[in-house]
Amino acid sequence: MSLNNLYAISGSALNAQTVRLNSIASNLANMSSAGSSPETAYRPLRPVFSTVYDQLQGEGQSARVTIDDVFRMPPSDKNRRYEPGSPLADESGYVYYPDVNVIQEMADMLSATRSYQSSMEVMVSARKLQQKLLSLAE
Predict the structure, then answer these.
(1) In the beta sheet, which residues pair with residue 67?
(2) What is the pLDDT of residues 94-125, one digit of tens each?
(3) Which residues contact 88 (CB under 8 A, 6 or more apart)?
(4) Structure confidence at residue 57 (pLDDT)
(5) pTM, 2 dp
(6) N or C: which end of the chain has fewer CB within 10 A?
């Protein structure tokens, strides 16, 4: 495996964690976006990742992270509130709020941030290693 493969692997992981962080930010920003039915209320985003292994000619294997999909959670009426005076209330007086768990989103954000930092450290270490190798040639 060459150092260029490390950049490709880390770069794909950085891209995946960026999508994950953007999904979390969208979920937190829209957690108060109510609707008149479960279908019209905001539905949280969840990205799905997979690892793809590539066979390189003469250099062994490499891997990368791909973003398979960013899907919306199915409609849920778990978080409905009785607010008969709201303009969004249905005929029964209920307003539907997104099923966003702030604690879960914050924990997921910490995990994504740590993963992002780890991938970044791999890139920085690879760059330092390349600089050391170049300085040996002088």
Answers:
(1) 49
(2) 999 999 999 999 999 999 999 999 999 999 99
(3) 34, 35, 36, 95
(4) 66
(5) 0.85
(6) C
- Cα separations in angstroms, 113 against 14, 125, 126: 10, 18, 20
Tokens 């791909």, residue located: 66
Can you tell me whether residue 23 is helix, strand or coil?
Answer: helix
* Cβ-based neighbours of 50, under 8 Å, separated by 6 or more: 65, 66, 68
Report CA dihedral (16, 20, 21, 22) to the nearest 10 degrees.
100
d(C-alpha 42, C-alpha 81), whole Å = 15
Compute the distance between CA of residue 106 and CA of residue 110 in angstroms, rounded to an integer. Answer: 6
Q: Do residues 132 and 6 touch, judged by C-beta distance below 8 A?
A: no
